[in-house]
Amino acid sequence: MTRRGVNVLPWLGLRPGATVLALLTAASTAAHAVRAADTPPPVPAAVRLAHPPASNNDPAGALFDGRITALDLDAGRIVINGISFQLSEKRTQVFRQGLPAPASALRLGERVHYGVAGADPAQRVLTTVYAR
Questions:
Q1: Which residue among 9, 77, 100, 127 has the highest number of C-beta atoms inside a 10 angstrom radius?
Q2: In the 8-state DSSP scheme, what is residue 8?
């Protein structure tokens, strides 16, 4: 790079020490993957298969909007937008104005946000109900 104190790369305008530093920096920025010859390649979908996405038919994890059209607390049934759901004492949490509330606090005609567990229509259980 330099010869007898003369800058070989005058067009860069760098001193000899800066030229070496610039070349080392440029050489170190490239990353190379190395794999031993006797190891098999990684499985491309290993990460995606570890946590498969929920199908579009699975309502778990989604919140829906609706209006209570029928309510039978004694039987543990509630109808929201014409769809019947079960109320479970252990699984259903009811919130009103951000605070926990009993299921008896729900009113007919009230607008709610709700979460559902179970894709089978006969076994749909409300997990969470947010009363407005």
A1: 127
A2: S
- Give 14-71 as a DSSP string: --HHHHHHHHHHHHHS-------TTSPPPPTTHHHHHSPPPPTT--TT-EEEEEEEEE
Flag whether pLDDT at 22 surpasses 70: no
Strand 63-72 relative to strand 111-117: parallel, antiparallel, unpaired? antiparallel
Per-residue model confidence (pLDDT) at position 35:
72
- Report the alpha-carbon distance of residue 81 to residue 84 in Å, rounded: 8
Look up tokens 């490239």; give the residue.
30
* Contact by Cβ (8 Å): 126, 71: no
Angle at CA 37, nearest 5°, toward 36 and 38? 95
Provide the whole-model pTM. 0.53
Residues 61 and 42: their CA atoms lie apart, in Å, by 31
Of 122, 71, 132, 63, the C-alpha closest to 101 is: 132
